[in-house]
Design brief:
This protein is mostly beta strands and 177 residues long. It has 2 domains: 7-92, Beta Barrel (Elongation Factor Tu (Ef-tu), domain 3); 103-171, PRC-barrel domain (SH3 type barrels, Roll). It contains 1 helix and 13 strands, in the order ββββββαβββββββ. It has one helix at residues 75-79, and strands at residues 7-17, 22-27, 41-44, 50-53, 55-61, 64-69, 85-89, 110-113, 118-127, 132-137, 148-152, 159-163, 168-171. The strands form 2 sheets. Strands 4-3-7-1-2-6-5 form a 7-stranded antiparallel sheet. A 6-stranded mixed sheet has the order 11-10-9-8-13-12, with no helix packed on it. Strand 5 and strand 6 (64-69) form a beta hairpin. The longest helix has 5 residues, at 75-79. The radius of gyration is 19 Å and the shape is elongated.
């Protein structure tokens, strides 16, 4: 499988480690080690092109992980990977229990507040250290003149409900903010 239809970002490559092509990998998965059990892994090569990534070996190092990839045997080769994201097709992930969702599935959903005001569409997610933030691109004719809103992704506080069937995230949020 050299194609990926529903990409899910699992992590990203960090700095190189040693001289034999090893590289640090930062996992976004709940259990950080599980990034190595999903597969196949991919890197984006262009807008709609994907390059498979084969992890030959990995190990725990400090508070993270390092790995050796097929085709990247020298430090200089691996340096080109620094900062690149690692993806898997959503079909390779385990099914979720009722009511749970993968964060990437929020991208493209409409964000509506409890009064029914359409705040816009989730464009991206930001990591802040404290909590994730929804980057919501406001509708073209936003009544409050907003172009973008940043909403903290705090379940049962700001985000009340994610309705995947309706493609809607219901939030407690003042549209003027």
């Amino acid at each position: 499988m050299d194609e990926i239809s529903e990409p899910v970002e699992l992590g990203r490559f960090g700095s190189v480690f040693g001289v034999r092509g090893w590289i640090r990998i930062h996992s976004y998965t709940e259990d950080p080690e599980s990034i190595f059990s999903y597969g196949p892994l991919f890197m984006r090569q262009g807008e709609d092109q994907w390059q498979p990534v084969k992890v030959l070996e990995w190990r725990h190092h400090g508070d993270g992980y390092v790995c050796r990839l097929e085709g990247f045997d020298q430090r200089e080769e691996s340096q080109s990977l620094t900062g690149r994201s690692v993806y898997v097709d959503e079909s390779a992930l385990p099914p979720l229990p009722e009511g749970e969702f993968y964060l990437n599935s929020l991208i493209g959903m409409h964000v509506v507040n409890t009064d029914g005001y359409d705040l816009g569409v989730v464009q991206d997610l930001m990591e802040t250290g404290a909590n994730d933030v929804l980057v919501v691109k406001a509708n073209e004719n936003d009544a409050y003149g907003k172009k973008e809103r940043l909403l903290p992704l705090v379940l049962d506080h700001t985000v009340l409900r994610v309705d995947s069937d309706r493609n809607v995230v219901e939030v407690v949020w003042d549209p003027d903010f």
